[in-house]
Each structure stands twice: as structure tokens, then as C-alpha cells.
Specification:
Layout: E1 2-3, E2 10-16, E3 19-24, E4 27-32, E5 40-42, E6 45-47, E7 57-61, E8 67-71, E9 79-85, E10 88-94, H1 109-124, E11 131-135, H2 141-148, E12 153-158, H3 161-173, E13 181-185, H4 188-198, E14 204-207, E15 212-214, E16 220-222, H5 223-235, E17 244-249, H6 256-266, E18 271-281, E19 286-297
Parallel strand pairs: 1-18, 4-7, 11-12, 11-14, 12-13, 14-17
Antiparallel strand pairs: 2-3, 3-4, 5-6, 7-8, 9-10, 15-16, 17-19, 18-19
């Protein structure tokens, strides 16, 4: 398991009956989670989620798709939380959205630390000009981590201009404005293909593609059918002295071991670890699986 258990500002308090109850700073949120396939257990007894303390907001699904938040207590529309990544303070703006997300996936913190540690060790060993490519980069948590830990250049690519705008805000809130980060609003596959033609190379590549999406011409694609091809394409950007290739997935049809096999077959040599991303449940004797990650390292 890759466990993200160094949080102070975030806490998964309870989960069960298809929901999770979390603390984000001083705000508590209750929202659906399909992996919480057990009952809520408190003090050894099963209890309904409704018997827990009233959260700040509750997400309700709509029968027509999507959903909305019901605010039960007063709190700001956006607020900030921080994470200590091996001594580097990363700060994120949190905002509940109509798609139940908050702008941050806290289970990914173990990946932030993993990449940060490799970058710092490489710098100490004398490696220079470390370049990292972050694809499907969302609001930039991994971008922040790599920049904070000393990457000389981070290229942040996401098709959503709104997500890139939030990533830039997170960079500012984390005091990383002096770091060299390039923000690219573009389809990730098109960008990778152009970088290959340019002869660009990266020492670290990170990707967290969506389970479903649309290509540059509007064609519908499914990650299970495209994951290997995407990794193989990106492998052409790996430098001669690489550090890592991280591929995460939240697609239910792709297991951690399948992700690991994809990296092993697409990138010969090196070492691959693959496992589930997990969050500890502080008020229950449990861990919540939150997707999977495969990590390729050159050594």
C-alpha cells in the first residue's frame, strides 16, 4: 500500500455505506465514495452515517447526473490547507465543486513525497537541470511538490484553463513563484507528440489520466483501451539519465498490478512498484483505497 498518512490539515474521519466524512482544515465534508463498501463502525458498532456529527456540507447526487452541495454550517466558498512534504510546505486552495471534488486528491501525497525525495537526492548527487513533465496535471499538487523539492523546470499540462488558473494560485500560495514552471493548456497527447518531434526529454514524467475523456477531435476514449499506448508514447520523452515515471489511475477496470505491468512492458529496464493509494480512517480501524499508482524508477 502507498499510504498518505502525514496529513495535519486533512483527515478522513469515517467512511462506509458508499460515503466518506472528511475534515479539510476546519471544514467537514460528507460525499460519496464507491470504494467505501462496508458499514460505518464507531466504537465497535455499526451506525448510520446520519448519526455522526452534522458536517459543514453534504453532497447529494442528482438522478440526472452530477449533484450539488447542501451547506449545513457557515464556511467560506474557498479556503486553504497545507501539507508538509518532507519539510516543504505546500498550500492548496480548496473549493467544493458540482462534481463532488474539492480541487485536491489527498491520497496522492505519498506520490508527492516519493518524487520529491528522488529529486532532492539527485540534486545532492550533483544532477543538474532536472526537468519534470506533469500530464493531466489538474490543480498542480504534483507540480508544486516537484518545484518545491528542487526541479529546475516543471511543465504542467492540462486541457482545462480553469484548472491551470487554480494551479497558478496554488503556486503563489506556496511561495513558489520564483520556480520555473511552464503552464500549458492543451490536450496532453497532442503536446507529447509535439515534444517528441522537438526532441525534448524529461527526467521525470507524471500522469494521472481520467477514466474517460475526449480526444482532440472530440472522439470518446476509455483509459482501459488507451493506457498502454499513452505510456508507450510518453516513454519516448524519457531522458538518458531519468529519475521516475509515475502513472496513476482511478479507472475501476485497471488494477494496480495491471498499471505496473503496463509500465514494465512500455519502459524496459528499471524497477517498477505498483499498489493502491490508501488513506487511513482516523475514527475507524480501516484504510480507504483511493485509486492506484505504478512507479517506475531507473534504479
Amino acid at each position: 500500500m502507498f499510504i498518505s498518512d502525514n496529513w495535519k490539515d486533512y483527515e478522513l474521519l469515517y467512511c462506509g455505506a458508499g460515503e466518506k466524512y472528511e475534515r479539510w482544515g476546519d471544514v467537514t465534508l460528507r460525499r460519496p465514495d464507491p470504494q467505501a463498501v462496508w458499514p460505518v463502525i464507531r466504537n465497535g458498532k455499526e451506525i448510520p452515517m446520519d448519526e455522526l456529527e452534522k458536517p459543514s456540507a453534504l453532497y447529494n447526487r442528482s438522478n440526472t447526473g452530477g449533484g450539488a452541495w447542501t451547506k449545513l454550517k457557515n464556511f467560506p466558498s474557498t479556503w486553504k490547507i497545507s501539507y508538509d512534504s518532507l519539510g516543504k510546505k505546500l498550500t492548496f486552495i480548496i473549493e467544493p465543486t458540482a462534481f463532488k471534488h474539492t480541487g485536491l486528491f489527498p491520497e496522492q501525497a505519498s506520490n508527492w513525497d516519493f518524487c520529491g525525495n528522488l529529486i532532492e537526492n539527485a540534486k545532492k548527487a550533483g544532477k543538474k537541470d532536472i526537468k519534470v513533465l506533469n500530464l493531466f496535471a489538474y490543480t498542480g499538487a504534483q507540480t508544486l511538490a516537484c518545484a518545491a523539492h528542487g526541479a529546475d523546470e516543471v511543465v504542467h499540462v492540462d486541457a482545462s484553463k480553469g484548472m491551470i488558473a487554480r494551479a497558478k494560485e496554488n503556486i503563489k500560495e506556496s511561495g513558489l513563484e520564483d520556480r520555473y514552471v511552464r503552464f500549458i493548456a492543451e490536450d496532453c497527447k497532442k503536446f507529447v507528440e509535439r515534444e517528441i518531434r522537438r526532441g525534448r526529454r524529461y527526467d521525470g514524467i507524471i500522469m494521472d489520466p481520467p477514466s474517460y475523456g475526449r480526444g482532440p477531435s472530440g472522439e470518446l476514449w476509455k483509459l482501459e483501451d488507451s493506457f498502454y499506448d499513452l505510456v508507450k508514447l510518453c516513454s519516448e520523452l524519457i531522458s538518458d539519465d531519468p529519475l521516475f515515471f509515475i502513472a496513476s489511475s482511478y479507472a475501476t477496470g485497471i488494477t494496480a498490478q495491471a498499471s505496473g505491468q503496463i509500465l514494465k512492458l512500455a519502459i524496459p529496464g528499471g524497477r517498477v512498484e505498483a499498489d493502491e493509494l490508501m488513506l487511513p480512517v482516523s475514527k475507524m480501524d480501516a484504510y480507504l483505497p483511493c485509486g492506484q499508482t505504478a512507479r517506475w524508477t531507473a534504479k
